[in-house]
Design brief:
The chain has 197 residues and is mainly alpha-helical. It is built from 6 helices and 2 strands. Helix 1 packs across helix 2, helix 2 crosses helix 3 and helix 2 crosses helix 6.
Amino acid sequence: MSNRKFRTIDLTMVGVFVALMAIGANTTSFLIIGGVPITLQTFFSVLAGAILGSRLGAISMVVYTLVGIAGAPVFAQFTGGAAILVKPTFGFILSYILVSYLTGLIIEKGKNPTAKLFITASLVGMVVNYILGTNYMYFAYKLWAEAPDGFSYGLAWAWMLAPLPKDIILSIFAGVIAPRIYKALQKSNSSYKENIA
C-alpha cells in the first residue's frame, strides 16, 4: 500500500477506525483495574493493522491520537486534550500506532497470508501493546505521576492480568475475521493500480 496517493476509500477506512477506537475506548472504560481502564482499543488497533495494512493502520492510530490530544473526547472515560500526555496510560495510546504497524507488516510480509499468519500477527500486536504500555505506565508512576501505595513493577503487570484473557480472545478473533476484508481491499488496490496504469 506504500508509495501511492490516498484514495477516498483509504481516507474513509482511516476515519472508520478512528471512530471504532473512540467507541472501543469507552465501551467498557467504567471498569478500572489499578490505574488501567478496561477497553476494546487493543482489539481495534490490531484489527486496523490486520485489515488496512501497516501504513494505513498506523496512520489511523496517529489520527486517533492527534484527534484526542486536540481535545475530542475519544480517550477512555470520554476524555481528551493535552493532559493525556502526562497520564501514565498514555503509553498504551502511543503503542497502538506500533501495534497496527507491526500487525500489518507481519501480514504483508507473507506471500500468501493465511489465517494462521493473521492470528499470529494479531497476537504479536497485542504483546507489543502490553509491553510498551505497561512499561511506560510503570516509569510514569515512578518518575512524575503519583503512584498508589505499594506500587511496584510486579503490581503494574498484575493489573494487566485482568484484561489479558479478553485481549487474547479478541486478538485471535481479529485474526479470524480480518483475512476476507484484507483480501477484498487488496483486490481493490490491484484494480486501482490497473486503472491508472
